[in-house]
Amino acid sequence: QVQLVESGGGLVQAGGSLRLSCAASGSIYAVNTWTWYRQAPGKERELVATITSSTNPNVADSVKGRFTISRDNAKNTVDLQMNTLKPEDTGVYYCNAEIVQLWWSTARSYWGQGTQVTVSS
């Protein structure tokens, strides 16, 4: 069974930086797309960044110029480098992966457990 494990969350002051990581393990043929989402208490989940390959990253307008998404296909991991953090970046961050487990199978969606990011003023 495929599992996604996140790490790197924590408390940081505004203007600081954090680096989130997410690692997929189990039976994996390929990860098609990695995506980072975040959710603040009482609010809907929002897309933060997505990457289909190392040369095709996209980030939300709200974090453009501050966040960078990257992936390591050999390790089946994705990172989210977060710089110049703002209080409005506070929330639980979830990684998601569209994973093909066998070369002939279709992709399925998997979620990490979430990691808390808190940015203080």
Describe this structure in words.
- There is one protein chain.
- The protein has strands spanning 3-7, 10-13, 18-25, 30-39, 46-51, 57-59, 67-72, 77-82, 91-100, 108-111, 115-120.
- The chain is elongated.
- The protein is an all-beta fold.
**Continuous helix count:** 0
The radius of gyration computed from the alpha-carbon positions, rounded to a whole number of angstroms, is: 14 Å
User: Structural class, please?
Assistant: mainly beta
The ordered H/E elements are EEEEEEEEEEE
Secondary structure tally: strands: 11
Shape: elongated
CA-CA gap between termini: 41 Å
The residue ranges in which pLDDT falls below 50 over 5 or more consecutive positions are none
Main sheet attributes: strand count, strand direction, barrel closure:
7 strands, mixed
Residue share in β-strands: over 45%
Query: What is the mean pLDDT?
Result: 96
Helix proportion? under 10%
